[in-house]
Fold this protein.
Amino acid sequence: MTAVLQILFDALAVGSIYALGALGIALIFGVMRLVNFAHGDYIAFCVFAMLVPSTDVVAIVLIGKLPAILLIPIILLIGAVISVLSEMLVFRHLRNANPATMMICSFALGFVIQHVLLMFYSSRPKAINLWSNLSLPVEIFGARIPLLQLLTIIITFVILVALMWFLKRTRYGLEMRAAAEDFTMARMLGVRANRVIMTAFAVSGLLAASIGLILATQTGVADIRMGMPIMLVAFVATVIGGLGSLPGAVICGLLIGAASVLLQVFLPLDARPFRDAFLYSAVILCLLWRPDGIFAPRSAKQRV
Amino acid sequence: MKQPQSVLAKTISTPVILIALLVVIAILTALFGSGSFARTVTEIFIRVAFVVGLYIFIGNSGVISFGHAGFMCIGAYAAAWFTVPPMMKKVLLPGLPEIVSNAQLPFLGSLVLSSFLAALVALLVGLIMMRLAGIAASIATFAFLAVINTVYANWESVTAATSSVVGIPMVTGVWTSLFGASAAILIAYFYSISRWGLALRAARDEDIAASASGVDIYRQRLISFVISAFVCGMSGVLYAHYLGVVNPDAFYLGITFISLSMFVVGGMSSLSGAVLGVVIISAIIQILRWFEKGIDIGGLTLELPNGIQEIAIGVVMIVILVFRPAGLLGKREVLLKGWPFKRRTAD
């Protein structure tokens, strides 16, 4: 029983991070058909924003020293700002470009962010010490679970509820959902395109920043490439969830996290290094089964 | 009344000009370039072959593929299997089948055989994946790349896992890679003017009209996928024989994204765009590298700080795409009208 609980919590914790990432990507895809490959680099940027630029192995923490009550809002703000800035500087000028062009631009932007970080911080991963007492285990029904894992799950849950409230109950949320459904139609009915897109970028940046905070606490390492794997899994989750479907993105993020933990546990020892091969084969099968995604919104269907 | 010109006569100047451009670069390198410059040019030619391979599939089908670095990986490792001396292979890669580990093929034999292996894998994978379209197909190709990378990075006895396979004869130089790039351009050109290429481009632009006109989109995609995998596999073989070592991480996300960027910046739907995108972006990278090392201009040494090169190249790509969203060439090809035959009179 405790073993099952342990696996369940592991799966949920890994899945929550993917779900947050997938949500950040799906939000932007929904309003402007952009697959934002720079999302992973926003995550790394937020983590490095806490450190003093240096090439040392052990990072000197600058704003990371602030009490949590100040630090968290500041990092979230940094995430939102870099995300909105990238919209204003890059993506705004590509409104009518085809999706491939936008995707490559987002990749080029991520490349630039990565190498700016590289210039100031060097490529060596750095140890950072952020709320290390959170990794102490707590006992729930006999299973020993790191406090942080529990927190990750709770935080994700809170963010999801808050976002749901934002999307369902506020004017901005309504506009955003309308824009995700049919952008041209929404504009005709008086939704301001740029405002909706900026809001989407801001929320997506907030999500990236929260992933950054969770990851930095969890691993204790700041690495320039830390966002990339999350971004890729999140991207896959967004597509098999049905592009443009926010609940789909979240559920598939959780599913992929759960699947990777379960494969890790239940695969025979010899096959375990090949875990990702099994995982991605499952992704291909899933796409063959539902090419439009498991939770594709009806608007995604092309009409002839 | 004159016979209308054939497609071949109208467009043959495109591959001729592109190959001529590469030949000129190769000759200039041979005459004036240093050894390290020759290595850079070799790398550019190999990249040209790879991106032209991408063009065969992505350019004609309109489906973005993230998976073609996987075929490069397959080609490169197959080259290692076929050309590393048997003595070394038995120690390094004990899991290889007897017939492979005893063999040591010459370069050309390994080139053809390894490229065919990549094409064969593409056929098997494509049979499943080419049913998909649009972004689902893109993700499926990415998943394929991840599978290939995981397998090659962990299959200790056949690929030496994450440690590099060494001992591949280093025979790729400027001229070999020029041959490879030219072969790639010719394959891509003849494919794109064939009825297959035409059918696939029709399906790219108007899929419903094309299938109503009898184009079997699945079949056409599969054909183009296999041919492009062959070319990408070939570029992988060249790369293995250029470096002398292969390592699975050389064929993963880094090369996928930078090659796709060069391709899109050049112009996604054009063979000339694929070639020129690589040549232009690589040239800018090389110039920036020189600036990083320091350049004398009228007694003044201009030196850029390290790391500026990558940042600048990212910014340059964004700027190009902002001003030319369809890439530098868009859908156009470099073309001499009427060449090599007489210009057709206006009718």
Summary: Confidence is low (pLDDT under 50) at residues 339-347 of chain B. Chain B has one domain: 7-250. The beta strands of chain B are 295-297, 300-302. Chain B is about 70% helix and 0% strand.
